[in-house]
Design goal:
The protein is α+β, with helices and mostly antiparallel strands. It has seven helices and 13 strands. The strands form three sheets. Strands 5, 6, 7, 8, 9, 10, 11, 12 and 13 form a nine-stranded mixed beta sheet that branches. Strands 1-2 form a two-stranded antiparallel sheet. Strand 10 and strand 11 form a beta hairpin. The longest helix has 29 residues. The protein is globular, with a radius of gyration of 44 Å.
Length: about 300
């Protein structure tokens, strides 16, 4: 009987041991701390993994808001040589050749007298004076002028005309605000009329001002003073009133100077139309101006646009 009891005890003990082993195996497979493979022990992430701080967001560079137009300087859109010029106008460096864009009318008699090439060059001379002398950087308003400031005009004139032009220059230099003296030169010369004493910018009329410091040119540094040149066909006829025949060339033209609209805070342009009649004399192989009758039409204002 004792043997039976002992046998039953052993059986119970074996069952208990088996149960303990089974529970241990279950815990070993399921617990994060248990062994996953031979010689490998899983690292408890909650205990051993160091806390990683979230990276601070990188500051995003903000694009600065473009500054609006100001009266300090003409806009970049008017850089270059005669912005808005016809594609037919040829430019080589800083030299402009207007001839490829020049067209004539009524030139048959002149061609018979002077030849086609000479007549074409005469028409080019008239157009060239308009855009290289009449519309020039000298157009910007100044408080005073020196005679040498107008030397660039003399190269376009016939010798006999130079002798009559000098007194006109002297009159203008002595009285730059005299309208008659200005008109006699055949040039566009703004006065800045209406500019108040101590104003930062010279008036361009109708609430507009010229760029930069009043009566200075810095506001147009690196910028074109004139844009959007246009001109009509050059009407040609022969003048036989002198011993040597001359050519009379008539054309209409226009160009615009960029100005600032103070009330609207925008870039505008002031367009100056021209009607011109030139007397052209043959001086050797070149054509020179023997005289002219030039008039400006009504000035017009509009938002700046390069056309």
């Amino acid at each position: 009987m004792l043997s039976a009891v002992r046998s039953k005890g052993i059986t119970i003990l074996a069952g208990v041991i088996a149960a303990v082993v089974l529970v241990s195996l279950t815990i070993g497979l399921a617990s994060p701390d248990g062994s996953v493979g031979e010689g490998q022990r899983a690292t408890p992430s909650a205990v051993l993994a160091p806390a990683t701080a979230s990276p601070s967001p990188t500051p995003t560079a903000t694009t600065p808001t473009p500054a609006g137009p100001t009266a300090d300087r003409a806009p970049e859109s008017v850089q270059g040589i005669w912005p808005g010029r016809s594609d037919a106008v040829a430019v080589d460096g800083k030299t402009v050749d207007w001839c490829p864009a020049v067209r004539t009318s009524g030139a048959a008699e002149a061609v018979a007298v002077f030849g086609k090439a000479a007549v074409r060059e005469a028409a080019c001379t008239a157009v060239r004076f308009v855009f290289e002398q009449r519309y020039s950087r000298l157009s910007l308003p100044r408080t005073s002028y020196a005679a040498k400031d107008l030397d660039f005009v003399l190269t376009a004139l016939a010798p006999v005309t130079v002798s009559t032009y000098h007194p006109r220059v002297a009159h203008f230099v002595a009285c730059p605000n005299c309208q008659s003296a200005r008109d006699a030169l055949g040039l566009v010369l703004f006065r800045g009329a209406g500019t108040t004493a101590g104003a930062s910018h010279a008036s361009a009329g109708r609430g507009r001002v010229f760029y930069g410091k009043a009566y200075g040119t810095a506001g147009y540094r690196g910028r074109a003073v004139w844009v959007n040149p246009t001109f009509s066909k050059v009407a040609i006829r022969v003048d036989r009133s002198k011993a040597m025949p001359r050519i009379i060339a008539t054309l209409e033209a226009s160009a615009a100077v960029p100005v600032f609209n103070s009330s609207a805070r925008r870039d505008d342009m002031l367009t100056v139309p021209t009607r011109a009649v030139f007397i052209l004399r043959r001086e050797g192989k070149a054509w020179k101006l023997g005289g002219w009758d030039i008039h400006s039409g009504a000035f017009a204002y509009a938002a700046l646009a390069i056309v």
